[in-house]
Amino acid sequence: MEYLIVALSSYLLGSIPFGFILTKIFLKKDIRDIGSGNIGATNALRTGNKTLGYATLLLDITKAVLPVLYVKFNYPDYIFIASLSAFLGHVFPIWLKFKGGKGVATYVGILFSINIFLGLVFIISWAVTFLISKYSSLSSLVGSLMVPMYLIVFENYNSIFFIIMFVLIFYTHRENVKRLKNKEETKTKIY
Predict the structure, then answer these.
(1) DSSP states of 21-64
(2) Residue 25 burial (C-beta neighbours within 10 Å; 0-12, 13-18, 19+)
(3) How confident is the model over 119-178, as pLDDT tens digits?
(4) What one-character DSSP code corresponds to residue 190?
(5) How confident is the model at residue 189 (pLDDT cuts 50, 70, 90)?
(6) Kindly report the CA angle at 124 between 177 and 168, in degrees rounded to 5?
(7) Helix 50-74 to helix 79-91 angle, to the nearest 10 degrees?
(8) Which of 1, 81, 143, 152 allows an S-S link to 125, with CB 3.0 to 4.6 Å?
(9) Of 45, 109, 103, nearest in space to 71 by CA
(10) Mind telling me which residue stretches traverse the membrane in this protein?
(11) Confidence category of residue 65, pLDDT binned at 50, 70, 90
């Protein structure tokens, strides 16, 4: 029964669509009508309001940190259930007919909550890739791939969860992958 409560509460926290809420409140617009139509931080940056984009990023990270850290310290056996549920809440929010974001910021919150070093592996990989390419999507894919790769190569740690997360992030970026392949992907300005 506890795992159901963990899963549901983590999903509900993860499903709070901060990009949608913030653009509605501060810009009086629907973020789904802007840029890629995605509710996440990268598309929030495309609104032209960097503060709104960074606020979305921080809130999307936080909505994963809260349930995952709580579960980590109170129900550690369910940490991956909480993590996956928060991620799925962001990607498939009940409030927006299950059409959410791509889950990268939420995944960053998950990583830092599980192990700060894994969060750093992602951030460093993301930053290096972004500095070279200027593609947020490619950076997100590389960052999410580097976490299980790091665990496989350098740690004696079960990387199955992180491989699953990479596959899910790849899935949420499938259109970006097509655009990258066709050299049609839009570069991202983060500053």
Answers:
(1) HHIIIIISS-GGGSTT---SHHHHHTTT-HHHHHHHHHHHHHHH
(2) exposed
(3) 999 999 999 999 999 999 999 999 999 999 999 998 877 799 999 999 999 999 999 999
(4) -
(5) confident
(6) 35
(7) 150
(8) 143
(9) 109
(10) 3-23, 51-71, 78-98, 108-128, 150-170
(11) very high
Nearest to 83 by CA among 157, 150, 169: 169
CA-wise closest residue to 105 among 12, 18, 5 = 18
Q: What is the C-alpha radius of gyration for the chain, rounded to an integer number of angstroms?
A: 16
One-letter amino acid for residue 150 of the chain: Y
CA 100-104-107 angle, 5° bins: 105
Q: How far apart are CA 18 and CA 35, in angstroms?
A: 16
Q: Which two tokens stand for residue 46?
A: 């495309």
pLDDT attached to residue 43: 86
pLDDT of residue 38: 86
The SS3 assignment for 99 reads coil
Closest CA to 60 of 89, 29, 96: 89
Instruction: Assess whether pLDDT exceeds 70 at residue 191.
Output: no
Tell me the one-letter amino acid at 76. Answer: P
First to last CA, the chain: 45
